[in-house]
Design goal:
The complex is a heterodimer of chains A (315) and B (344). Helix content of chain A is 71%, strand content 1%. With 315 residues, chain A is mainly α. Chain B has a six-stranded parallel β-sheet, sandwiched between helices. Helices cover 46% and strands 19% of the residues of chain B. Classes of the chains: A mainly alpha (315), B alpha/beta (344). At the A-B interface, helix 1, strand 1, helix 12 and helix 13 of A face strand 7, helix 7 and helix 8 of B.
Chain lengths: 315, 344
């Protein structure tokens, strides 16, 4: 029983960063922009999320609002980087895949450079600690699995219904879907495609920045140059995995994290299984297999995904 | 006219002789030692790469002033970028190039063949790669064994854990030495091991450590720079009896070092001084440099400032007795590779 409870508890705790980043990427892609730069934006978010509490308190505990300030700074920075990406792919209509790779390198490189300049070597912070919710955390099994986490974890989970509501129940969400599906039709109905796409990139970037800060403030509680380590790319894959739907993306993020935690648990509790290389591959294999069997994904995705929009052209 | 021609020839000859003299100076200048380091992480990673960088810095201070004319490090290098870095350094006149990490083996083999006049040092491996490559291999089963003694005698629940990067190189030796060390003092102790499959992912190693702690382990250790994430996870439990044994002395000085009872380190200073001596003798490689306690390749430190109450006289004696054995004779733990994780 301990094995199951531990696996589930850690799955809930560690899925938050992927969840936020993939929700953000969903906003980008729903609007027709494919942002491979998620990894770079997460790196900058991770750095800024750590920089503010570290600058104020070093490795000592800081007031709660300083950590929140770190999260906010990362979120704002993420939004700005999203807008910068917008300038490249919306205004200048650069190919989105190539620009995304550039943004990834830019973000990772910039975060590493700033980190070296302002902090120096690997440093840790106190960060935001997990807190058991009084009463609820005492419920057998469920209490430990769901109610013993960092407050930011709950916020990330809350973003799932919020994202669903925004995308499917608000006028702005309808505009986002419209510009991602048929920008010319949206334009003819008076929707400012460029503006909506910029807004989506800002929202997506903000969530990616937040996800990066989650890693440094709530999970690793430290920064190093390679801290994101491919999680931004996994977030992009999870959007396909979840067929651009917030609830399915959420399930994908939880399933991927479960596979990560499960493989560690297998290594620990089943030492007879000696092929740890296979186990560490397991979560990635899972994503590839699901994507391979998702043959209908392209039909469900935003029709204008990856296509730039130019209202002066008739195509 | 003839006189002018004669004077011109004399001038040309004089200039030629001057240049000939200069060639001697150039040959002299070639003996100037310039050291380059190529690492996969950063030189301040409080782990594998920093240990080498610090060792080089210490060697530069200990050697006569100017003996090493220049030292440069290139960080965050992937195997695909390694040849570019090596060629750049060779073109800039660097003649001792240390490529620090077993993942760079193919590139070192290629570079050694391309630049036979340059000395390369590469680790970790026990193989002799080329006549101009010195291989180095920390026999870290010794440091792992000492960490295991500390862990096995400190645990109160008889459950200790290790967060490893990959099961290879010196990490594999440290991990198996750790198992032997724990078993030597506490055969009933459960030893749990995981490999995160990566040298640098501190987030993943933190997750692994949290998994162990949730599972009840109360003393953890880990090797390579990824282990910092695990140490940070241990520090998430300031009021609980959960402890860490480090594989780099720098971990004691970290803010979370209050959880680190003791740590070992590689002493690369001795390695670099040895390389410089060999270079002066004109030998560029073709040998294995083992690192162990008996040749000063390792150092051990207690965290007496922050963990004095955890360092009992019994633990200290057990570690120091074993360390004395290691210093007296190398390769005591030749059976380290027999450790079978599946039987733990």
């Amino acid at each position: 029983m301990d094995f199951i409870v531990n696996t589930l508890t850690l799955t809930v705790r560690f899925s938050a960063a992927l969840l936020m980043a993939s929700m953000g990427e969903m906003f980008n892609q729903k609007a027709g922009i494919f942002n491979l730069g998620c990894e770079g934006i997460m790196s900058m978010g991770a750095f800024l999320g750590m920089l503010i509490p570290f600058s104020i308190g070093g490795a000592s505990a800081v007031p709660w609002y300083v950590n929140i300030l770190g999260l906010l700074a990362a979120t704002v920075c993420g939004a700005l980087l999203g807008l910068l990406f917008g300038i490249i792919v919306i205004t200048f209509r650069a190919p989105q895949g190539i620009a995304g790779i550039g943004m990834q390198m830019f973000g990772v490189g910039l975060a590493g450079t700033f980190f070296r300049s302002y902090i120096g070597g690997t440093q840790s912070i106190t960060g935001i600690n997990a807190t058991a919710i009084p009463g609820l955390s005492r419920i057998p099994i469920i209490g430990e699995v769901f109610f013993t986490h960092n407050p930011v974890v709950y916020f990330a989970y809350l973003m799932v219904p919020v994202a669903w509501y925004v995308i499917y129940k608000t006028p702005w969400g309808l505009k986002v879907r419209a510009v991602g599906t048929h920008p010319r039709a949206a334009d003819s109905l008076g929707i400012n495609v460029t503006k909506v796409r910029y807004q989506s990139l800002a929202v997506g970037g903000a969530m990616a920045g937040f996800a990066g800060a989650f890693l440094t403030l709530c999970q690793a509680k430290m920064f190093n140059a390679g801290i994101i380590n491919g999680r931004g790319f996994i977030a992009v894959a999870l959007v396909y995995f979840g067929k651009w739907h917030p609830v399915k993306i959420f399930l994908g993020a939880v399933l991927f994290t479960f596979a990560q935690v499960f493989q560690t648990q297998i290594q620990i509790f089943v030492p007879q299984f000696q092929y740890y290389e296979f186990l560490t591959m397991l979560p990635y294999i899972l994503v590839i297999v699901v994507l391979a069997f998702n043959r209908e994904s392209n039909k469900l995705g935003p029709a204008a995904l990856g296509k730039s929009f130019n209202r002066e052209m008739r195509v | 006219m003839k006189k002018t021609l004669l004077v011109s020839i004399m001038v040309l000859l004089t200039v030629s002789m001057l240049f000939a003299g200069g060639a001697g100076e150039t040959a002299e200048a070639k003996k100037e030692i310039k050291v380059a380091l190529i690492v996969s992480s950063t030189i301040d990673d409080k782990g594998w790469c920093q240990a080498m960088h610090d060792g080089i810095q210490q060697a530069i201070e200990e050697l006569p002033a100017g003996k090493i004319a220049d030292y440069k490090a290139v960080e965050n290098t992937q195997p695909a970028d390694t040849m570019t870095a090596i060629r750049t350094y060779v073109n800039l006149g660097y003649n001792i190039i240390i490529v620090h990490g077993s993942q760079f083996r193919a590139q070192v083999e290629e570079a050694a063949a391309e630049f036979p006049e340059v000395m390369f040092a590469f680790g970790t491996t026990t193989d002799i790669i080329a006549p101009n490559v010195f291989s180095y291999m920390p026999q870290s089963e010794e440091t792992g064994f000492l960490s295991g003694i500390v862990a096995g005698m400190t645990t109160k629940v008889n459950k200790v854990a290790l967060v490893g990067p990959i099961d290879g190189g010196d990490a594999a030796r440290y991990n198996r030495g750790f198992v032997l060390g724990v078993q030597s003092v506490n055969p009933a102790c459960k030893i749990q091991i995981t490999h995160i499959g990566n040298f640098n992912d501190t987030v993943k190693s933190g997750e692994a450590a949290q998994t162990f702690i949730q599972g009840g382990a109360d003393v953890l250790t880990g090797s390579s720079q990824q282990a910092l994430g695990a140490l940070r996870a241990v520090a998430d439990y300031p009021d609980k009896d959960i402890w860490w044994v480090g594989q780099d002395l720098a971990q004691i000085d970290l803010d979370e070092g209050y959880k680190c009872i003791a740590a070992s380190s590689y002493n690369y200073k001795a390695v670099l001084i040895g390389l410089v001596e060999k270079f002066d003798e004109g030998k560029l490689g073709g040998e294995l440099i083992p690192m162990n306690f008996s040749n000063g390749g390792f150092v051990w430190g207690w965290n007496t400032a922050k963990c004095a109450d955890k360092i009992t006289p019994e633990i200290k004696k057990a570690v120091e007795d074993k360390m004395a054995e290691f210093k007296a004779q190398a390769n005591i733990l030749a059976n380290w590779s027999d450790v079978d994780y599946s039987k733990l």
